[in-house]
Amino acid sequence: MASTSTHAAPAAAKEKLTPVKTLEDHEDFIQSMAYFPDGKRIISGSDDKTARQWDMQAGKEIKKERDVCQWEVRAVAVSRNGRWVVIAGGNDDHTELKACEIETGIMKTFRGHSQEIKCIDISPDSTLLASGSRDETVRIWSLVTGKLIAGPFEGVGFMGAIRFSQDSKKLAVSSEVGNGLDVWDVQTQKSDVMFQGKGTMTPAVTQVPLFWTNRETILTAFNFTDHGPITIYEFDASTLKTVGTSFEGHTDIINSIALSFDGALLASSSRDNTIKLWDFESRHLLASFHVLNAKIIIFSPLDSRQLAYTTATYKDDNKIYICNTPADILARTTLPKVRLLTFTNLRCNNLLQKTSATLQDLLEVCVTSICTFMLIGMHHPSLTQPVVLPPCTVIE
């Protein structure tokens, strides 16, 4: 079922990944981090029971925004419209899941899981929250009402990562050891397809993120063998069969992956002490950097010109490192076969929710803030339906 490379990739560029900023204040392992949509802030969650926000220009914590939690923070997320910040965590006997509406400061608490929450995701339309727990269930909540609207779903065992599809209608779930995948229909609350690999339990939990690509496939590291998830695969979302060439090059378990917002650049971190950058379309390895104990990696929104990463060195390095993505690497990426049109206005998202909105309306109104309108395959099925706008680079 797994694909293998059929041609040799060009040699990866040997460049130094030098941090331009280091964010430090956490007192224990950093378990999760996420950029705000404008790229000006990062939120991070740690085993020190805090979620902290960081000013990217100043390179310092915004201390008034610090959230002190009852239990270890395992996951953080920010909605694409910038309205919600979600924090999740807990331990074997307790659970914590809460969402803060940024503008009003109103906090919502979601109760239902019986053990710590390991992963969360906010739907691209910023209305739904999905949570995956050590209680082996996934639940979907309304961010507006705070009520459970779907689930609990069971399937792949302990949850490692979850991700809504770009239309918010499907939810992909992976196991924490990287040997199971499941795709759920949010409306019917039924599993469309599930795949359990033959790989056995890995030496430790990895919780590799998964992504829906611009062509509605699923991207993640997967464990097909007894060696753990050391290779990244692209899966057909309807069959969970692998498609295309896999991303091969790591020699030890992959800790994290990140896909740039335009879908052109893939980053991966591994226990082999490297961070690798790949061209998504060609599968070519563009660069490999030696980074000791590289753990979480994320790209900045809009242009993916920054790469943030953490390391895991047993409590003596609880920092976030901010690096500039090498310009020559960005220049060598192949743009996905997706046309991106730019519209700008703070009212753009609201306008797009109106079924009567026309292309002329969008061109006239969207003139002051960045949105991205994606036309898959050079055409969009309808301009009269609500459209989800991911915060991507503006490219024509």
TrEMBL record:
WD repeat windows: 23-64, 110-151, 247-288
Gene3D superfamilies for this protein: YVTN repeat-like/Quinoprotein amine dehydrogenase (2.130.10.10)
Biased composition (Low complexity): 1-12
Keywords: Repeat, WD repeat
Nucleotidyltransferase recorded as keyword: no
Segments for region (Disordered): 1-20
Record keyword Ribosomal protein present: no
PANTHER family: TRANSCRIPTION INITIATION FACTOR TFIID (PTHR19879), TRANSCRIPTION INITIATION FACTOR TFIID SUBUNIT 5 (PTHR19879:SF9)
Name of the protein in question: Uncharacterized protein
Organism: Rhizopogon vesiculosus
